[in-house]
Amino acid sequence: MLRERPHVLIVGAGIGGLSTALSLHAAGVTDRVQLVDASRRLRPLGAGINLQPHAVRELTELGLGDRLAAVSAEPQSLLFTDRHGNRIVAHPRGRHAGYAWPQVSVHRGDLQGVLLEAVHERLGPTAVRTGLALEDYEERADGVTARLRERTADGDRAGAEVRLDADVLVGADGLYSAVRRHLHPGEGPPRWNGIRMWRGVTAAPAPLDGRTMVVAGSYQPARIVVYPLGRGRVNWVAEARAARPAALSDADWSHEGRLADVLPYYQDWRLDLDGIDVPGLLRGASRILEYPMVDRDPLDCWGRGPATLLGDAAHPMLPVGSNGGSQAVVDARVLARELARRPDDPRAGLRAYETARRAPANAIASACRDMALDRLLDTVAERAPEGFDRIAEVLTEAELRVLRDTMRRTTDQDVSELNSRPSWSVRPG
User: Fold this and answer.
1) Is the dihedral of CA 390, 391, 395, 399 positive or negative?
2) Which residues lie closer than 8 Å to 95 by C-beta, 6 or more apart?
3) How far is Cα 388 from Cα 297, in angstroms, rounded to an integer?
4) Angular region, 46: left φ>0, alpha ψ -120 to 50, beta rest
5) Ramachandran region, residue 275 (left: φ > 0; alpha: ψ -120 to 50; beta: rest)
6) How far is it, in rounded angstroms, from Cα 128 to Cα 13?
7) Full-model pTM
8) Burial tier of 261 (Cβ tally within 10 Å: 0-12, 13-18, 19+)
9) 307: β partners
10) What confidence category does residue 255 fall into, taking pLDDT thresholds of 50, 70 and 90?
11) Has residue 290 got a pLDDT over 60?
12) ∠ CA(38), CA(29), CA(335), 5° rounding?
């Protein structure tokens, strides 16, 4: 049995976990940070993800702005249309909305690669240990003892037991977090909202002007999200209302989807938008991933004692606001700041982090459930099923304001507040 003692043990080496390790290093909290991940090898899984300006600011202050820009695209506008491509409303994005930082669209695997490379450079090649699945942990007066199991080559958990002692345990292990299960036993499966999602990346020229995200259609019965990722790739997310989801007990972003399941919703679509051939994009993807649109009920506390939660483990949210990954990055930076402020009392630092982050994150998660935007897109489909010439003939100005307000509640942060807020960076020492 192996026993070691990192100061901070992070469970999960995804966006949230890697950002936490980099944030702790930058703040000088500790040089003893250990990340563990159940995967035997960290592979570039998933498809596209959008990082909002509030997250890009934090990654830029961690010295990753240029690396992120090299693997991403920068959207200038988010355009909503009906299923025929008729314009409903457009929202400026990132710097084009007045932020000092851009919004970026990036492949999840590329983002994880940028973060992992930086962790290896700054914390060392052994900072991330793979093939270790957390089974349980025990709280102690001076910290925590985590009990993990090595994953064998065939993927089961029959390997050797490993015990790691730490002062702080951070659960950044996603929707099915083992740390959350320990802190909140009996919670049950995630909550499904009735939408099935298929994701893919297709080698194709960027549509329209190359800097526009498009959301076309509604859940009567389906809609699609399309945006460029840069380097000749287009990301798409197909979303359709369904009678039943894939199994909620094991849904993950690596679940293989089938073209035969998603194409029937879109095979007759002909968007009047330059460069967007919806059936062609679906057929052109080398791989399709399927996922039910799920979240969990907000928690009234994230942790206790020496343990806390972060990212999807703390506040999984429906991906309607393109904000889940961004919130994980923000979590990481605030956690490092609060621990740095209390070097002799990490438990107080954890509680201060939760106080700062829990209410804002829960508010976004709740706003994503409200679905006001989706109801209005459904209204457009009901009132003008064959299309329209001017959206003012279909929606009132008050209804269009709801669309703009929804973006503010689920996605955007106040421009002046973000641009003027002092940096969260903590000078080591």
Assistant:
1) negative
2) 53, 74, 101, 102
3) 38
4) left
5) left
6) 7
7) 0.94
8) middle
9) 169, 304
10) confident
11) yes
12) 65
